[in-house]
Amino acid sequence: MQKTDFLVIGSGIAGLTYALKTAARFPDKKVLVITKAAADETNTKYAQGGIAVVNDLENDSFAKHIEDTLIAGDGICNEKVVEIVVKEGPERVEEIVEWGASFDREEDGDFKRGKEGGHSEYRILHHKDVTGKEMERALLESVSRLPNIEFVNHCFVIDLITQHHLGYLVTKSTPDIECYGVYVLNLETNRIEKILAKITLLATGGNGQVYRTTTNPTIATGDGVAMFYRAKGRIENMEFIQFHPTALYEPGLLGQAFLITEAVRGDGGILRNKKGEAFMERYDARKDLAPRDIVARAIDSEMKKTGTEHVWLDCRHFSREKFIEHFPNIYEKCLSIGIDITRDMIPVAPAAHYSCGGIKTDEWGRSSIRNLYAAGECASTGLHGANRLASNSLLEAMVFAHRCFLDAAEKVDKITLNDALPDWNAEGTSEPREMILITQSAKELRQVMSDYVGIVRNDIRLQRAMRRLDLLWEETENLYQGSTLSPQLLELRNMISVGYLIVKGASFRKESRGLHFNTDYPEKSSLVQNIVL
Ligand code: FAD
Ligand code: SIN
């Protein structure tokens, strides 16, 4: 058993920003960071385009960034939160620069600023096309300089510990559910351990792995949302899954797809259909730089009309030198599969990319469970509404990690650890006879979610999805109750819960708004609501 003052689950931008701040403020307190994989294996590491921020007040303004965010969010952003993130963003970006992250600069020393869909101005700071890798590097290096931060990698958080584990009945209507720590499966020792914490932060990232193709790495299985839901916390707006319009299409590839950043369209890349037509002008006046929901739906519609599995991204008019200067990673990747972007168009198709909903938090990152915060992609702060504006998530993660830190710092000394908690009970479990059953169920889940709960939905598809998820859930629960635990089984269980929450949210939303498009209700409803589950 371990004890800690601050427990941080996740080592992406949200978890590490928070860990750095708490450890620096409280050098005598312990900050424990847990990750289920290697420390840098996070969605953060794969971020390409950059971070949206207003730090050029001559050519841009907070008001414009706020307006762009609200337009993309399609009527359900929390306006106060949007203002907070946009206005506090520049200070957080300055901090990460101080911690060593480098963003590309012009010869005069000013930042280079890119543009992406839905942005009215050039405001995306970037480090070539590997911005996330650079930010993650700087954060991990800064964290390693603070001796009171302890890292435990390859340690899978199974469940949050609450009053339920003390034998009390805990339901959605129980007031004051409290988090005392977590149970983890230590993947090095294969033992289940208990970690007690005064304050816990969930920073477990996204859930793209619930779909057949995704830009997300394998860690993105929605674990934080699933365990929070099991602990009876409040989740919202899970139906708003953002599909990135331009993942590289590689025939037969399943799982993580390579992203072609939207910044390529920001620099002039043009989407073309099978016939070579630049089709976006038929869908939106902003053409290739319309918000993501619109571009992804337009591509989906062109693919269905022309019977193809991808469209093209045309960069043949770029100068090779300019392209390589901004997008060296994409250039190399394309070349490695025989695509020379100055001669060949790039095959692209939408892929699951970002979860706009998640653990409902207030403006200090507090969840509905006491002493438990959430930040980053697993949280639903109200910033993104029905569709996240490109490159707003790294910014949101830093702003809210900071706010969680401020609130937690006020509380930590008033909390005592609860020593009365039982150890994990693994009685009656044995090794599963066939691991292949777990793999097959995960495959089925991704198939169901991609076929029935993708970019375009309708009621029959959602009902079908729910029936199939019910069966998968029943089978997986049986396996879970009788088996010794493995990360594969835990992830499957979590992904089925997340799938259920997405389908449930989608079924409740009787309208089309932002990323949720249901052909049975193609219009926006006058009832503006968040779906809380
Ligand atoms: P992550 O960075 O995903 O970190 C999650 C952490 O949680 C990991 O350490 C993981 O091991 C840990 N974890 C999860 N479950 C468990 C568990 N059960 N037990 C223990 N540990 C666990 N956003 C932008 O703003 N700009 C961009 O340019 C951009 N580009 C992107 C490109 C790609 C390809 C992708 C995938 C995303 C992109 N995004 C971008 C989105 C952005 O990168 C993510 O939303 C953000 O990085 C999420 O950070 P996070 O800290 O919330 O989680
Ligand atoms: C991209 O670079 O296109 C991704 C940006 C984002 O998801 O915000």
**How does the helix and strand content classify structurally?**
alpha/beta
- Beta-strand portion reads 15-25%
Could you give the count of β-strands? 20
- Poorly predicted regions: none
Q: Give the proportion of residues in helices.
A: 25-40%
The quaternary structure here is single chain
The CATH architecture category of the largest domain equals: 3-Layer(bba) Sandwich
Shape, principal axes of CA atoms: globular
Ions and ligands: flavin-adenine dinucleotide, succinic acid
CATH class of the largest domain: Alpha Beta
Please describe the biggest sheet, giving its number of strands, its sense, and whether it closes into a barrel: 7 strands, mixed
Kindly, what is the distance between the CA atoms of the first and last residues, rounded to a whole number of angstroms?
33 Å
Summed over residues and divided by their number, the pLDDT gives a mean of 96
Total count of domains = 2
Radius of gyration: 22 Å
Write the CATH homologous superfamily of the largest domain: FAD/NAD(P)-binding domain
Using the coordinates shown, work out and report the CATH topology of the largest domain.
FAD/NAD(P)-binding domain
Distinct helical segment count: 14
